[in-house]
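yo

u said u wanted the structure for the complex thing, so here. seqs first:
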Amino acid sequence: MSKIVLSHIDKFYGDNHVLRDINLTIEDGDFMTLLGPSGCGKTTTLRVVSGLEKPQHGTMTIDDRPVIDADAAFYEAPSKRGLNLVFQSYALWPHMTVFQNVAFGLKIKKMKKAEIEETVMGALRTMRIEEYRDRYPNELSGGQQQRVAIARAIASSPKLLLLDEPLSNLDARLRIDMRAELKRLHKETGTTIIYVTHDQVEALTMSTKIALFKEGEISQIDTPLGLYTNPIDLQAADFIGNPRINFIDAKGVYNGDTLTVTSEFGTYVFPHETLKLDEEIPEGEEFECVLGLRPEMVDIYTQDPNHKNTVAAKIYANQPAGSETLVTLTVGNTEFLAIQVGLVEYDMNQDVFVVLHPGRMNVYNKSTGRLIKYAKTKHKAGIDD
Amino acid sequence: MAKKGWKRPPMTWKRFKNLFLNVVGNPFNVIVAITLIILFIFIIIPLLTMIQNTFVTTRGALREVRKVYPDAQVGSYTLYSWRYLFGAENFVSSGDMGLKGTLIYVNLLEPLFHSLTIGFFVTIISVPLGALMAWLMVRTDIPCKGLLSSLILIPYMIPSWCKALSWLTVFRTPEYGGFNGLLTGMGIGVPDWLAYGPIAIIVVMTMHYYAFSYIMVSGALRSINSELEEMGEIQGANKAQILKNITLPLVLPSILSATIMTISKSIGTYGVAARLGEPAGYHVLATKMKWFLGRSSTEAVGYILSIVMIALAAGTIFINQRLIGKRKSYATIGGKGTRSNPIPLGGAKWPMLTLLVIFLVVAMFMPLFFLVMESFQIIPGNGYGADNLTLYAWIGQLENAPNTAFDRDGLFSPHNELFWRSLWNTVKLSLIASVITAVFGQFFGYITTRGRGKWYGNAVEQLIFIPYLMSGVAFSAIYYAMFSQPHLWGLIPSLTGTFMLILLVSIVKHFPFASRSGSSNMMQISTELEEAATINGAGFWRRIGSIIIPLARHGFLSGFLLSFISIAKELDLIAILITSEENYTLSFLSFTYSETMPQAGDAICIIIIAFILITNKIADKFGGNVSKSM
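structre next:
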């Protein structure tokens, strides 16, 4: 059982404040992904958890046992934290065979020889690389090296497994295979995993929870679905999702009960219960806001579908890509992107009708950049929203 | 520690205890502390002691000192030595010779002027020569590249004092050298200004120090992506324009570095000047210093000259850093430019090849040839006829000597105890010193790479750099001064004339080079490999033993072999420390023989050169080569 709690962690490199007041709780069995662009502090956070970096401020506990207490200059040694780490570079020792690499930590624990043999082979079997036990790392492909690195990390049966961008050095196909492998590993072992990546697809497909990092701070902690449907601010919304979310400038009026938003798509009234009331929403006056519209939530019709949220639009460009088609449209002066499943052909400048679903839109206050209206997740949304 | 928005937590007992345990409980910190102490003891303290000793009255100097300071006792502090050199009476000219008639001119200015002259000419000849050769070898389609590149650094591997001895085999004159050389033996008169003095010294040093600019510039050229030059071509520049506007500016920092290094090395060289200048009374700073050190009443004056030499070297390095400053980063431009298309030389191909061949003949074949031939001669300078050839210098016994001028047994004769002892001393010295320097070098390298940007990493790096600043003679003068009397109430006895002192100097002087080889070695071992071991529970010593040592093995071996070469051929560094035959090394023996039995001196040179070439070949196998041992 392992529950990790980081509170008020601050880390400086010289004058450079790289982690700012990090608070993060990782429940037992979580697959927690630290997501963000490079240089945002996610790897540093991982290294703080592992014990390779010492923060200047803050505390960390594992199952309520203090592991870091910066004020008392107390930092438990990495090896006593019951965790293991897979490095981005794999960090396989080039002078040791696969077997020796995996057995290294077990030998240090003074495990018996027969037991080491059994444990190592178990780990190699889990990663399906038994046949390479006597090879040296430079005799293996990138994907195989990756498996060895993971085998080495899981051989000591850590309660917590840390993974630092483990897939970034693999090609696209191998990456998909390894994603499945890691997901299976998490399910099979039940180990708590902290996973660092800048790849949102990895984060969305594998995690149970995502912590989104921005410039040394955590801007949002949520489930993948929650993060995708309701990014907390404009930057997060922009970062999550491929192709990118559409931002549509609009004017909003909040009367204390409902929020009325007017844009070139028309006017929508959002009910009270969908509003995020702990954010700043100017009351009784018109203010600038931004509609967030995911490309897959735009339905395109060539005939008027007689839906209440229908808007007339023009095709600007059309990019069929096999399994999906990207369509750029204009409504008035607003340009936006839609995505449709399968191959669809449109002519340039063709007149079409789009149906939008206000219930699935996000609204952001433009001056603060923060989310002020939640979107419903798709499966809960009725067709009329 | 001005960190915005963060206050240092209050110092509690618990915090203090943990901070203390964090520092002391980590063997790395302990090693850093020990390293700093060692460097302080063996570099800073000797330097300060030497400065102090310029004021201290020694027993040997007491009588002279009392003439000026009647109350002086052994150990009392006076300005005697400084007045000896800079006293007002030194600036008074005797007779009508002007400045040349003053003592300051004889004792300081003339040797200084000679040193600077030599430094200047060696530099302006050898730097362009080395740079041109580097460009030809790296960037052009010069024929026989493979063969040339395997030969081109061999002249540098022949120790400079061996080349001086070889020069004498040809140009020696009986008045100054005691024997004929090849030319006087053939009845061709050799003017003294050619045989001895600045020209001889400059020629010999040029054949040695061309290597600095060759090694540095070829390194810089190799790191330049040839696409940069090709881009110039696409823009319409011709070859000369490309060379002038693209290539040269990019290698300029390395040329500047080589220039500074050549100046500072050629100013500091002792052996060449001692054989090719001193016999004719041509003194440079290094030989003048040795002369002062050799008389007990003026030892401290020698220290002052040594300080002058250190100041000169430090000054040139300082200028170097000011000149290059930020531009130094040029040298690291893209390691990706491995694919490079050689520039066709066209009509210049054969003249350039001829130039290189002439250089190799003059700097490599001729010195080796004359050394080998003279080692077989009965009477030096008497031609290479069968009646003048003998193996005496190699294996002869005194009772069968073919020539009365031979006053000792041949080298490998069982009765030549001095040779066997020198051989043993050389082996002992090189082996012990190079093992110790190589081990220390790896630790220094470890500390400087892992502590890059931290105060202790910088401190170690800067301390280690100090011996590099000093020429061999100046450096050994420091140790001579430091250990001429007992220290710590007799705990450290006087080491004058002991093997221990020679060993110590050889070790510390090679620290900079060993630590450079150590850090380039450690740089290749990523910290993540160590961190992975930390995570798996390996402590510091376990990491060193299981990860660092196995991975650093090859680099260690090549570093060891290169220090081994460098120590085995060293002459300047130990010349003033060897005071009795007990401590002779091969290089010193050869140097002494060259005055009484040059054939044997030559033979030792050949032994040393053969040894260097073989060891270098072995080091090459482990990824090291002579270009890393500058």
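Confidence is low (pLDDT under 50) at residues 326-338 of chain B. Residues 102 and 511 of chain B are 41 Å apart (CA to CA).
cya
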